[in-house]
Amino acid sequence: MKKNGVNMIKISAKNVDVFYGKKQALFNINLEIEENQVTALIGPSGCGKSTFLRCLNRMNDVIDICNVQGEIVINDFNINDKGCDVVRLREKIGMVFQKPNPFPKTLYENISYGPTIHGMAQSKQEMDEIVETSLKKAALWEEVKDRLHEPGTGLSGGQQQRLCIARAISVQPEVILMDEPCSALDPIATAQIEELIDELKKEHTIIIVTHSMAQAARVSQNTGFFHLGELIEHGSTDKIFKNPENNKTQDYITGRFG
Amino acid sequence: MNKNKEKLLAKRYSSEKRFQFLGKSAIFMALLFLAFFIFKIFSTGYTAFQKTWLIVPVNFDAETMYLDTNPSKEDLEDADYFEISLQSMFNLDKNANEKQQNELKKMVSYFFEREIKQELINDPSLLGKTKDIYITASDDLDQVFKGNYPRDLPEKQRRVTDYQLKIFDQLVEQGKVESKFNLSFFTYPDSREAELAGIASSFMGSIFSILVCLAIAFPVAVLAAIYLEEFAPKNRFTDFIEVNINNLAAVPSIVFGLLGLGILLAVFQLPRSTPLVGGITLSLMTLPTIIIACRASLKAVPPSIREAALAMGASRMQTTMHHTVPLSMPGTLSGTIIGLAQALGETAPLILIGMVAFVNTIPGSPMDPAASLPVQIYIWAESAERGFVEKVSACIMVLLGFLIVMNLFAQIIRHKFEKKWS
Lengths: 258, 422
What we know:
- Chain A starts with a strand and ends in a 5-residue tail after the last helix.
- In chain A, strand 3 and strand 4 form a beta hairpin.
- Chain A has a single domain, classed as Rossmann fold (3-Layer(aba) Sandwich), CATH 3.40.50.300.
- By secondary structure, chain A is an alpha/beta fold.
- Chain A is 35% helix and 28% strand.
- Chain B has two domains: 52-178, no CATH class; 200-417, MetI-like (MetI-like fold), CATH 1.10.3720.
- Helix content of chain B is 64%, strand content 5%.
- The A-B interface holds A 57, 59, 62, 64, 87-91, 94-95, 97, 99, 101-104, 113-114, 117-118, 153, 164, 167-168, 171 and B 233-234, 302, 304-315, 318, 322-323, 327, 419, 422.
């Protein structure tokens, strides 16, 4: 989706402030996210990168004391507007969490849940197809095709996380938010997920929060560095890792703090 | 320095040993009490499941009953059985004087003529013949046969006379006294006569009360719990409600009885002594128990499941109904059963709303007067007759059995259906 050699902007955050009660967690974040690219958000613990991610599908609504200000424009539409319907928004913007959280139901039910509540399949056959393509895209089909009706919680950690990814893509979201998706996984499972992310970016815009700078360097095209609730620096991953402008970024990347 | 350390270590070990010893002896004490309690109930109660019968030859003489030789069914129903019944008892001792005849009559149950009548209705061909009939012995003789009655008391202090004992012993020698399973204990309603008293009315009363209680308490409590836990904003008002629900759980049950008396009976004029009123009163008591259990099991559902559903674009209602509530159901159900088991054992509120009345019919619906098992225990425990002593224990056994089954059921639900979160 390139226009004149420049990537289209999918999401743009303007002057976003987030408060937990009286405590301010994010300060004036301005960030543009390119379509069909992987954007990594890095930074030390508690820097606000997950909070920012959760602003993008309004998951912060669940927290009573959380208050988000500023504009987040997706497809020319400010999702912080009163008129924004969170159910429709979250249909378009999927999310994968830090800890694999499959529903304690069968694999099939895990995948079909989203399409069911959004009325995406007219028949059992269509639903079967959605389940199959979602699992195939998540590179899980071959491993589980014979036990679709067994509980999803019986899978290994890495498989569970891929199941959660399959569940997220079952409703064909435009954007997938990933909140440290590999932090609970071993290196092999992590490698599988990273490979998957690379594949998924063809059809989806991906934003990934990660603790691992190596991972950010491997999977992302763009990187944003957060520190103490501020976005210190953002740009192409290459530039951030090889030639950062800001000293703090430099220090964090080289492992001097964090 | 080193010596000090050694000392300290020894002290720490010995204090642990002391603690373990105290804990073990506490458990031992508890088990001892329990064993004593159960032994006492079983040893006094098991005889209630047996009943003593006298086998008495009865002459179904048509003339004495004012019957034709070929009577219709109605005729049999209307016939006079008193005379032949009386006569067959008097025949046990043909030389008895009037006073002794009166004593002979009292050797069997008060309603013995009904048993004789039933025999003829079941088999009309007996008319004109003599047959040995099983007749329920009086409760006092029943106790004598079971060995619960002291024979060495002076006659004046006994309810069984020397003459009755003599005749009874003769019957025993002839093999005319038999002990059989006491089915009537389960099928008969309460009675003033211990040998005829059963738990049918109180058992049905308890079942109906529990059903009414479940039908009211469960939906109200679950809705309240879901709303409070999943939808209500967390503020001072909801905190206040939560504190008061917990307070409600600690209110003495008799207060709920007063509420039932003052509101259900006095204001709404609902029928007195019925399982309907009993069930509503008990449901007030069970409500906080179920709310607390349901909220606890909703809380135990990990937030990650809610987030997963919300992130898929489920509304809050869908998240709650599709995921959280089904996952919390095992805990809620077992809490409900435990709440019902508490309600089942409750006596005080039921006494206040009149379920303590003497009921000698078996209720067919929650609108009929009935007793309940614990109230039945209370009523019988107040009775002076020796025959009721074993009945009290037997009724306790039935109630305990009922409770054990319910608690077992709660445990099974909890273990079998509760999801494990890794």
